[in-house]
Design brief:
548 residues; alpha/beta; ABC transporter transmembrane region fold; 2 domains; six-stranded mixed β-sheet; 64% helix
């Protein structure tokens, strides 16, 4: 946090200066109050006129002072929040894929929106108020030390007591903010899931059921928000009671001082200082706790993780010359065993089709082979090198994925194929040709440099899939993982896309429920999963039995 605040030292100094402008403004108001009391004591109209003139000047000065302070503060706050958003996004985007995929993407959206908004609203408001109130308290103690050292000591002792109380509240405040953050994550996930399935909800008339579930999620989030707000107010009230008792003691002390000849203006000024010092602390300490709670949120969403295991990325380069070997591999979700003692090999350049009933473990097997899941028993190795020892970045640099839902971005066809990598033009053109994209590019005014709309909405499903395959070819991926790559296409398009897969020189590992006669038979092997066991067949043998 210190590094974040001091990243722009010049602007942070301006922020502090802007914060302390409020202090000058506050003490100027108190000074005017003392001058008015003294003018009343003197009964001199000329002196009273001077005080009125000073008051009028202050009325013009105050809004200018506020505007300058606001402009200096808001610029620093804006730049710092941009840094937090950038750090949070960098943390997510640079996260190892296995770690990223362990959470729902809606949680990351909640971190980038809800948590950062919470940090912005609570941290900077708390920091500003804490600086102003503690600054005014310190100035008050200094002034009291010159005017009445006994009162100065008493106020300092009161501050010590309130500091001890505030420390007791800190842990609970941080815990409440953490719980509120988790409730926001769950709420965002629930809403995203509900809206994603809205068509099914409407068609089956079960909106009310999901409305109840959504309202329960909203209620939990609001209850946590209420608890956090209530706890903050409770802190203020506890401190306010102590401050009130202190003010009563000060009034008794000043009453005795009046009997000893203290002037009205001095007594009024001392009472203002003492009563204000309590209010400063009432405002400052809950803000201090909110800042600490906000720092918990900052650490969660934006601060780099010191304990990130480098072993998670591995140290060996991914080199695939011969085979990927799976030996006695088992995998479970909780107590449910998905794969049991699986053993088979993947040969370079061969085409493998994973088959099995829904829930059999097809995606699990592909995730193991794609190195996105490593919590398994047994051994997976490539040319003798254990999968767990392979550098994640090296692995991802030599494999490619084709999914049912193709992700395209608003840029040219070229950049959607090359993914902003420096790929030679001849390789891009080869990928275009192999994937049958020449006709598409020829129909576009700008050819391969035609810009696509959001997620390629100006292309058909088949064209979008061809681009995703072209990515793998241009990248020269050694292994192409295909997860239901043709399931959203019609029979004719699906057949054509599957032909493209099977004509590639790459090793292909695919999941598909479809069977295209005369095409699907061209896979080299079928890996069938039944009751957790993986059985390997030649495609010709497998489909002869199935079709028959």
């Amino acid at each position: 946090m210190k590094e974040l605040l001091l990243r722009r030292k010049g602007k942070f100094i301006q922020y502090l200066f802007a914060s302390f402008l409020f202090i000058g403004d506050h003490f100027a108001q108190m000074g005017i109050f003392v001058l008015l009391l003294r003018a009343i004591e003197k009964g001199d109209m000329k002196h009273f006129g001077y005080v009125v003139a000073i008051t009028v000047l202050f009325i013009f000065y105050a809004p200018v002072n506020f505007l300058i302070s606001r402009l200096l503060r808001i610029r620093y706050m804006r730049d710092t929040i941009l840094d937090v958003r950038r750090q949070a996004f960098d943390k997510i985007i640079n996260m190892p894929f296995k770690k990223f995929s362990a959470k729902s993407k809606e949680i990351y959206i909640s971190n980038l929106i809800n948590d950062i908004n919470t940090f912005e609203n609570k941290f900077f408001i708390s920091l500003l108020n804490y600086l102003i109130n503690m600054g005014m308290f310190l100035f008050t103690i200094i002034i009291l030390a010159f005017l009445d050292y006994k009162l100065a000591i008493a106020m300092a002792l009161q501050a010590g007591l309130l500091t001890a109380l505030a420390t007791l509240f800190t842990k609970k405040a941080s815990a409440l903010e953490q719980e509120l953050s988790e409730c926001n994550e769950n709420f965002t996930t629930d809403m995203a899931n509900t809206f994603s399935g809205m068509e099914i909800l409407k068609l089956n008339h079960i909106e009310e059921k999901f409305k109840e579930k959504s309202m329960a999620s909203i209620t939990r989030a609001e209850n946590k928000k209420y608890a956090a707000a209530f706890f903050t107010d409770m802190q203020k009230h506890v401190i306010r009671i102590i401050s009130f008792a202190s003010s009563v003691a000060v009034m008794i002390y000043l009453a005795y001082s009046f009997l000893s000849g203290m002037s009205l203006s001095m007594g009024g000024f001392l009472f203002q200082l003492c009563s204000s010092s309590g209010n400063y602390l009432i405002n400052a300490f809950p803000m201090r706790n909110q800042m600490k709670a906000s720092m918990t949120i900052y650490k969660k969403i934006a601060e780099p993780e010191e304990d990130r295991e480098e072993a998670d990325k591995g140290s060996e380069e991914f080199v695939f010359q011969d085979t990927v070997s799976i030996k006695n591999v088992s995998f479970s979700y909780g107590n449910k065993e998905i794969l049991k003692d699986a053993s088979f090999t993947i040969e370079k350049g061969k085409k493998y089709l994973i088959k099995g009933p829904s829930g059999a473990g097809k995606s699990t097997l592909m995730n193991l082979l794609a190195k996105t899941t490593e919590d398994y028993q047994g051994e997976i190795s490539v040319d003798g090198t254990d999968y767990r020892c392979i550098n994640e970045k090296s692995f991802h640099g030599k494999v490619a994925f084709v999914y049912q839902d193709v992700f395209l971005f608003e840029d040219t066809i070229r950049n959607n194929i090359a993914l902003y990598q420096d790929i030679p033009e001849e390789k891009i053109q080869f990928a275009v040709k192999v994937c049958g994209l020449e006709g598409i590019c020829a129909d576009k005014k700008a050819g391969i440099d035609e810009k696509l709309s959001e997620n390629g909405k100006n292309l058909s499903g088949g064209q979008r899939q061809r681009i995703s395959i072209a990515r793998a070819i241009a990248k020269e991926a050694e292994i192409l993982f295909v997860d239901e790559g043709t399931s959203s296409l019609n029979e004719e398009l699906g057949r054509e896309i599957e032909k493209v897969f099977l004509k590639l020189d790459n090793t292909v590992i695919a999941i598909s429920h479809r069977y295209y006669e005369g095409v699907t038979d061209l896979y080299d092997y079928v890996l069938e999963i039944k009751n957790g066991r993986v059985h390997q067949f030649s495609a010709q043998e497998y489909f002869q039995v199935v079709v028959a």
